[in-house]
Backbone:
C-alpha cells in the first residue's frame, strides 16, 4: 500500500474530526443539552485517536533496523490501545457531566439549527468511518481500522442522542437528557473495552485466522513438490505483516540447492496470496518426519 496515501488519510481524519467537533459544539451551545455535550466530548477523543493513528502509521512504516529487526508494525497496536484508554477516559468525563445534569440540569432549548448541525456531523462521521474501516482492512492497518470503528460508534450514539434530545424537547422530561448522556457513556465505555481487547490480541502475537492458515497449508502442499511433508506450522500477526514459519522435510539425499529451490517456490506462492507474509522455513531430512503435518502433493 502507498504509504503517502495512508499518511494523507490519517491526517485527513484529524481535519474531519475538527469539523465535526465544531458542528457538535455549536449544537450543544444552541440547545444546552448535556447529552449533546457528551456527544461533542466524545469527538475530542476522535481527534486524539486520529493523531495517534497518524503517528502510528508513520512510525510503523519505518524499515527494520538493528534494534527492531522484525520492523515496527506493532506500534499500531500500541496506538490502538492508547485510543481505547482515551475512549474510557472520555466515558468517565461523560458520566461526570451526566451526574451534574441530573442534579442541576435544565431542559434543553429547542433549536432547529442546533439539531441540524448535529445531523450533519453524524452524516460526515458515518461516511468517513465507513471509508476508514474499508481502507484500513485493505491496507492491513490496525490503527486506521480502530479509528474507523470508534467513529462508527460515535455515529450510533449520535443518532440515539439526537432522537432522545428531540423527545426531551417535545415532552419536557428533563431527566431524560442526562439519562441519555449516561447511555452514551456506557456505549463509549464498551467500545473502548472492545478496542483494547482487540489490540492486546495483536500485541500477544495472535495467530492468523483459520482461513489464512488453511490457505497457507494448501499452498505448501501444492508448491512443495520434491519435499515430503511440512509440520509445526506457526503464524503470528503484527500489523501489516503475517509471520509464517514451519519445518519442511525433504529426502536425505536431496542437494542443498534443490532444497533451497523448493523453499523459494513455496515462499513466492505464499507471498503472492498472503500480503505482508514473512516466511521462515527450517529444512529437515526425512528421518525427522512426524507423519502428522502437511502432506506435499
Residues:
Amino acid at each position: 500500500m502507498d504509504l503517502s496515501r495512508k499518511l494523507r488519510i490519517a491526517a485527513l481524519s484529524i481535519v474531519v474530526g475538527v469539523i465535526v467537533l465544531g458542528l457538535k459544539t455549536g449544537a450543544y451551545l444552541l440547545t444546552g443539552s448535556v447529552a449533546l455535550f457528551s456527544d461533542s466530548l466524545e469527538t475530542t477523543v476522535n481527534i486524539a485517536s486520529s493523531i495517534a493513528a497518524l503517528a502510528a502509521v508513520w512510525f510503523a512504516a519505518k524499515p527494520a533496523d538493528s534494534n527492531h529487526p522484525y520492523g515496527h508494525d506493532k506500534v499500531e497496536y500500541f496506538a490502538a490501545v492508547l485510543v481505547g484508554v482515551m475512549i474510557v477516559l472520555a466515558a468517565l468525563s461523560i458520566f461526570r457531566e451526566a451526574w451534574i445534569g441530573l442534579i442541576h440540569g435544565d431542559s434543553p432549548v429547542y433549536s432547529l439549527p442546533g439539531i441540524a448541525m448535529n445531523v450533519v456531523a453524524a452524516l460526515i462521521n458515518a461516511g468517513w468511518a465507513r471509508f476508514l474501516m474499508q481502507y484500513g482492512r485493505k491496507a492491513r492497518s490496525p490503527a486506521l481500522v480502530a479509528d474507523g470503528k470508534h467513529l462508527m460508534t460515535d455515529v450510533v450514539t449520535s443518532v440515539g442522542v439526537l432522537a432522545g434530545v428531540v423527545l426531551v424537547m417535545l415532552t419536557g422530561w428533563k431527566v431524560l437528557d442526562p439519562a441519555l448522556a449516561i447511555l452514551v457513556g456506557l456505549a463509549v465505555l464498551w467500545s473502548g473495552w472492545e478496542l483494547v481487547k482487540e489490540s492486546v490480541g495483536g500485541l500477544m502475537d495472535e495467530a492468523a485466522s483459520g482461513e489464512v492458515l488453511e490457505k497457507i497449508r494448501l499452498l505448501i502442499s501444492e508448491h512443495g513438490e520434491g519435499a515430503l511433508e511440512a509440520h509445526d506450522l506457526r503464524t503470528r500477526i503484527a500489523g501489516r505483516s503475517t509471520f509464517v514459519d514451519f519445518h519442511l522435510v525433504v529426502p536425505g539425499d536431496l542437494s542443498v540447492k534443490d532444497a533451497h529451490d523448493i523453499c523459494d517456490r513455496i515462499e513466492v506462492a505464499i507471498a503472492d496470496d498472503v500480503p505482508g507474509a514473512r516466511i521462515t522455513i527450517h529444512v529437515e531430512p526425512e528421518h525427522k518426519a512426524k507423519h502428522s503435518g502437511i502432506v506435499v502433493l
About this structure: The first strand starts at residue 229 and ends at 238. Residues 62 and 68 are 10 Å apart (CA to CA).
